[in-house]
Design a protein that fits this description.
6 helices; four-stranded antiparallel beta sheet; alpha+beta; Muramoyl-pentapeptide Carboxypeptidase, domain 2; single chain
Length: 164
Amino acid sequence: MLEPRRKERNAQKLTELYPTFAARVARVIAGMEGAGWRPRIQDAWRSPEDQKKAYDAGHSKLLYGFHNVTGPDGRREALAVDLIDDDKPLNSRKPYLLQLAAIAGQEGVTTGIRWDMPVELVAGIDKAIADQNWNAKVKIGWDPTHIQPIGITVQEAKAGKRPT
């Protein structure tokens, strides 16, 4: 994607997020850009129909997730994004994924890089991030470009709780 279009897309997708979460994601994007990457928000808010498609395709394990959050008036307040490497949109590189997890952690959000990984393999991811070894030979969890808040569950978000 051409650079002006990528930036425009990110700006538009940020409007689909709850404001405090959007601010954190914006800082993650800036951090990744500062590290020389071209992050692109592929998905932010999803309709229930789109979430069902993602679930049926195996791209989500939830029929209602952080991507589906709305305010009481139906306003989009998603608490998740999929932040892909625009230069390798179908297969984000390991250095990108490790740096994404590191920068996300600095901003108080988390990625799916550790999802469904055994404890000993999570330790390898954590060590690679701590050492800033972006080329470490580690296994990656099943949804590493997914970003969501820490300290709130999907059920709490559905009930109206939002991150500060």
